[in-house]
Amino acid sequence: MRVLMLSWEYPPLIYGGLARHVQALSTALAGVGHEVVVATQTTEDTPADQVVDGVRVLRVRQEPPLVPRDDLFAWTMSLDHALTRGALTALGGWRPDVVHAHDWLVAHAAATVRTVYDVPLVATIHATEAGRWNGWLPEPMNRAIHSVEWWLTYLADRVICCSGYVAHECGTLFATPGPKLEVIPNGVDLATWTVSGAERARARSEWGGHGPLVVFTGRLEYEKGVQTLLAAMPRLRRRHPGIRLLVAGRGSHEAALRAEARRLRLGRSIRFAGWLDDTELPPLVAAADVVAVPSLYEPFGLVALEAAAAGTPVVASQRGGLAEIIKDHETGLLVDAGSPADWADAIDRIVTEPDLGAGLAVLARAQASESFRWESVAAATVRAYERAATIEAPQPRPDFVVREGNQFTLAAEPASDADHDDRR
Ligand code: NHF
Question: What are the C-alpha distances in Å from 227 to residues 46, 253, 294, 337, 419?
Fold first, then answer.
């Protein structure tokens, strides 16, 4: 099949799990003979058009290029304009069989490109705005993003969700009909996360302290819950004076987290490592005694799977996709997301009972290798493409769809103009 992927991030430009997902999926599809073109945004020192691991990557510059990211909506429109033009002009005679859009940021480009090529549209929802805001859509921009998410799920012939949790969100938030939804979990590449003893020892001496090493990796956003880990640290330090929490990542919550660490006088017990690349991250994760995933909202939780692949025990929040991929006391420990006391107890257990941690890690790695391979993700995605092309999913008439608060529902009769204004 010929697949045109649209994604706002693609390595080496990585904001979060979405970039890793699109790269691994595209590479796996290309590996079994599909033709894959990824259209994405440019970043410093990357060619505009190149083939990487069998995947053609088109990197476009925003049009106009100077729209600041802090006006996210305007920035997204300038990216989408460039993606649309790139996808329609740079590909010459190459025509996709399917357009595959990842999250709302590429919805406008996807809508135009699939119409021009007259092919099915498949959308993957990696996270929802309502979920990120704990059910609230406080500002006009949040509501606008929410509407674009609905629009993308509405236009798409199939909606891929990375967990049953996200499928449930799409059903309740966007009224997406069940037959349109496809739950396809993320994968993990075991080879990337298999680390030698020497590399692990080097990472441990570089990042570790005198005691146990707890690692968090991910975007530093409120919903990732690092604040709960900080709050657990004073208790943990009383039990293990040399313990260290290493926080790898960057994001808009970083300054607040640093201030909180100072307020709690965590001193050398915490280290902010900044953003680490693919050569640094696997050794660090493998060197940890525990990887903590304290998210308040987590559609899937790729970082938990990566820790499992690296052979490190995981403690995670009992939320979203995490509660689907981790079996409590079998492949990790699940904890009440917002309770620092529970986090301290769970981390303490792994640190003081090495046999427990080792047992969890062995089973988690076996599960990662059996159930979360990118080859299987790619095969399931191709089946979704085929269904999108051959079996029509039920679709309500657009003028029957109304938004009430943070939910789109189907009205008994066409929505009024006022509803339409609100929806826009
Ligand atoms: O793993 C890739 C990633 C997920 O839970 C993660 C998230 C965004 O928040 O699907 O997308």
Answer: 35, 9, 9, 11, 39
Q: What angle do CA 277, 280, 285 make, to 5 degrees?
A: 115
How many angstroms does the Cα of residue 419 sit away from the middle of ligand 1? Answer: 32
pLDDT by residue for the chain (424 residues), tens only, comes to 999 999 999 999 998 899 999 999 999 999 999 999 999 999 988 999 999 999 999 999 999 988 998 899 999 999 999 999 999 999 989 999 999 999 999 999 999 999 999 999 999 999 999 999 998 899 999 999 999 999 999 999 999 999 999 999 999 999 999 999 999 999 999 999 999 999 999 999 999 888 999 999 999 999 999 999 999 999 999 999 999 999 999 999 999 999 999 999 999 999 999 999 989 999 999 999 999 999 999 999 999 999 999 999 999 999 999 999 999 999 999 999 989 999 999 999 999 999 999 999 999 999 999 999 999 999 999 999 999 999 998 887 888 888 888 999 888 787 665 554 444 3
Ligand 1 atom index nearest CA of 302: 1
Please give the CATH architecture assigned to the domain spanning 197-372. 3-Layer(aba) Sandwich (3.40)
Q: Kindly give the number of the ligand 1 atom that is closest to the alpha carbon of 20.
A: 2
Query: Is the torsion defined by CA of 56, 307, 304, 370 positive or negative?
Result: positive
Query: Is residue 17 in contact with ligand 1, taking CB distance under 6 Å?
Result: yes
Contact 52, 80 (CB under 8 A): no
CA of 175 to the centre of ligand 1 (A): 21
CATH of range 2-187+377-422; options 3.40.50.150, 3.40.50.2000, 3.30.70.1450, 3.30.950.10 = 3.40.50.2000
162 lines ligand 1 (CB under 6 A): yes
Going from the Cα of 19 to the center of ligand 1, the distance in angstroms, rounded, reads 9
CA of 413 to the centre of ligand 1 (A): 36
224 lines ligand 1 (CB under 6 A): no
- Give pTM, 2 decimals: 0.93
Kindly list the domain boundaries of the chain, sorted by start residue.
Answer: 2-187+377-422, 197-372
Q: Which residue bears the tokens 């017990």?
A: 269
Q: Whose CA is nearest to atom 3 of ligand 1?
A: 17
Residues 48 and 46: their CA atoms lie apart, in Å, by 7
